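> call design_seq(struct)
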């Protein structure tokens, strides 16, 4: 493999080269074997991996393993690239990517909303990188992390003697972001006094340092983000309505990870490649990840990958994923000895009932046609559900408990897959 082509994705013993990325809705792949790869048949490699180049229809085969490699590039550079990447090809991410591309062509203020850890700053950085201000500064400030007595100086700057301890002039973030973009994270945490002054700057395009006699004109595009309901805060009188409408000229809502589980494999590959690590993800491991609710969203997933790398867990099967998802602040030596001796989790309950993740068929070495990862995982999931139904005598409620699912969720999956208790009992 040519290391100059960047990070790579290895899957199931065959090679896929993405020589050119065609955007979010289409990809061009060439499938071929790479001698001397991970398995006897070679390795599967997707070259030219970037944040917005992940396809949900990646060719797959073999015992459902996914490994990522990042040859020939220093880790720090990968981290820089990861900071602004929009990874995934789920419908939600394709929509988000189009919105970013559209807004990058304009200069209006944008309000970015979404739950904590969903990647709101990544969206802001993506807008900056795609905009005409890409060569100008990107200044980010967390409004909730600034002490109240320093917030005005931090945003607008100060002159010598403006307050006790101000011995020299200091530009604020608006001046530092001149001709570029200022990203206001946690904008809902701004005090009422600071909201008034921020509104004045947005309306006039002028900023006055503390202690200064005159204001200075600035050319700054403002992007703001919050995980709070600003409209509710406006109704409660805790956020100015005029400032809200100044910030929300355009609006982007970043979806939580629970609404784009199709992107889990792509995100794990991205984080592993950014850290120059190698991670192998089995089909059972991916299935276990998909059952998690991800309250911490993409940040929680990145923490999981970092935790796996830190403890040398290069193979993520179902049991390892369960241990990584629920560390419970256990001592390191106890963590390394295995999963905690807690009440059996659904994954181990299923295993004790004889339910196993089926081996997926190997793709013959002479076959050059790609398979669809989503289809393979759906087949594996259907086989696991059938096993659970058989083990429970066709009782849907008991099967749902074995699989760690709500009964209604299992019923919907069975309906979608065309499964029934009768067909399961005869399996």
């Amino acid at each position: 493999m040519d290391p100059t082509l960047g990070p790579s994705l290895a899957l199931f013993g065959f090679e896929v080269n993405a020589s050119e990325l065609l955007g979010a809705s289409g990809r061009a792949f060439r499938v071929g074997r790479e001698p001397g790869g991970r398995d006897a048949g070679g390795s599967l490699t997707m070259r030219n991996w970037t944040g917005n180049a992940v396809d949900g229809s990646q060719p797959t085969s073999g015992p459902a393993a996914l490994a990522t490699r990042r040859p020939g590039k220093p880790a720090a550079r990968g981290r820089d690239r990861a900071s602004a990447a929009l990874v995934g090809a789920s419908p939600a991410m394709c929509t988000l990517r189009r919105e970013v591309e559209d807004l990058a062509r304009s200069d209006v203020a944008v309000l970015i909303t979404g739950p904590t850890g969903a990647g709101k700053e990544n969206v802001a950085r993506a807008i900056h990188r795609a905009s005409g201000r890409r060569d100008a500064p990107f200044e980010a400030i967390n409004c909730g992390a600034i002490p109240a007595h320093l917030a005005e100086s931090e945003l607008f700057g100060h002159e010598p003697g403006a307050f006790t301890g101000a011995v020299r002039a200091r530009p604020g973030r608006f001046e530092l972001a001149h001709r570029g973009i200022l990203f206001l994270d946690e904008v809902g945490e701004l005090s009422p006094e600071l909201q008034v002054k921020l509104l004045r700057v947005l309306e006039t395009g002028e900023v006055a340092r503390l202690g200064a006699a005159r204001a200075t004109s600035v050319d700054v595009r403002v992007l703001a983000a919050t995980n709070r309901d600003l409209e509710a805060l406006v109704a409660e009188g805790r956020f100015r309505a005029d400032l809200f409408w100044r910030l929300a000229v355009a609006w982007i809502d970043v979806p939580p990870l629970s609404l784009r589980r199709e992107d889990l494999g792509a995100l794990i590959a991205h984080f592993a490649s950014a850290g120059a690590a190698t991670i192998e993800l089995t089909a059972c491991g991916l299935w276990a990840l998909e059952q998690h609710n991800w309250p911490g969203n993409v940040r929680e997933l990145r923490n999981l990958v970092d935790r796996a790398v830190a403890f040398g867990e290069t193979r993520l099967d179902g049991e390892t994923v369960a241990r990584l998802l629920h560390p419970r602040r256990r001592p390191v030596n106890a963590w390394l000895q295995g999963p905690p001796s807690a009440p059996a989790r659904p994954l181990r309950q299923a295993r004790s009932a004889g339910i196993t993740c089926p081996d997926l068929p190997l793709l013959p070495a002479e076959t050059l046609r790609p398979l669809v990862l989503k289809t393979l995982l759906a087949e594996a999931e259907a086989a696991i559900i059938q096993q659970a139904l058989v083990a429970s005598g066709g009782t849907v409620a008991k099967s749902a408990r074995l699989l760690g699912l709500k009964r209604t969720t299992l019923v919907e999956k069975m309906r979608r897959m065309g499964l029934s208790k009768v067909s399961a009992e005869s399996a």
